[in-house]
Amino acid sequence: MLSQLDAAAYTLRKQAKNVSGQLALGAQTMLITIKNLGCTKENLQVTLTQLDRNLAVLKTQRKRGMIGQLQLDTVQNQRDKLAQSIDTLETTRENLGSSVALMCGLDANTIVMPADFETLYEGNLDKMSYNKDLEQAQKNSFLIWQKQDAVRSAYNSYDKNISGTAEAVKSAEDALSAAKESVVAAFDSKTVKDCRTTLAAKRTAQSQAELDLKTATVKYRKGIISKLAYQQAQDAVTTAKLNVESAYLSLYTAYNQYEWAKEGVLITTAAA
């Protein structure tokens, strides 16, 4: 009886650890999503500013009879729809922030918004070892442990003279094999590598945009280019910076999920 109680307590501890890990990963993922939506919102706001500039020009042209009302109305509708999209994004961010607050046991009226995340060091990324990390993920996987426990139970109940017990063992072993395959399929280091490549490309694009802005600034001061062209160069830098932030968040997400997977917290397609 004591042995059975100890086994039951151990199982409950394993389940509790897995659930707490899933909750923590879920909360972190929502915070990153909130941050990403913030980048998207700022990008849309850059576009909104550009549309407002264009509208000011079009309104002047309309007064002078240079364009028709339909052309002006079309751009105005685009502007209004974009403004609505920005409002919707902010509402989504607030809803996610409220969900995070509830997960943390805070008041229902509380909204949690993320600050800056910790810096990912290149050295830590370089030290990633797929085979070693996969072995750790398999060792810590709650799903694999759960299926192994089912195999043990099936063998303990096995009796060649009792119908169905052999089939139960075979079924449990098949489920264990499927769980192992599922963990291998879900454990992925390629995403981190792809995100690093994308981030590097976005940083290069930002550097180029900043160089272009310096050139545009000199030309604008000399009267070579218009104010609109100068503002467009400024917008390009803002957009490039936001693209870098978004790419960094993608890398942060991939690496965070990879690290959680090593601890056995990994979403798979295998049946629970």
Keywords:
mainly alpha, elongated, single chain, 80% helix, 272 residues
Overview of this protein structure:
There is one protein chain. With about 270 residues, this protein is mainly alpha-helical. It is built from eight helices and no strands. It has helices spanning about 1-65, 70-105, 120-125, 130-140, 140-155, 165-185, 190-220, 225-260. Helix 1 (about 1-65) packs antiparallel against helix 2 and helix 7 (about 190-220) packs antiparallel against helix 8. The protein starts with a helix and ends in a 10-residue tail after the last helix.
Low-confidence stretches: none
Distance between the termini: 27 Å
Provide the gyration radius in Å.
27 Å
| Major sheet summary line | none
The mean pLDDT is: 91
> Helical residue percent?
over 70%
Proportion of residues in extended strands:
under 5%
Please summarize what this structure is:
This protein has 272 residues and is mainly α. It has helices spanning 2-63, 69-103, 122-126, 130-140, 142-156, 165-186, 190-221, 227-262.
Element layout with pairings:
Layout: H1 2-63, H2 69-103, H3 122-126, H4 130-140, H5 142-156, H6 165-186, H7 190-221, H8 227-262
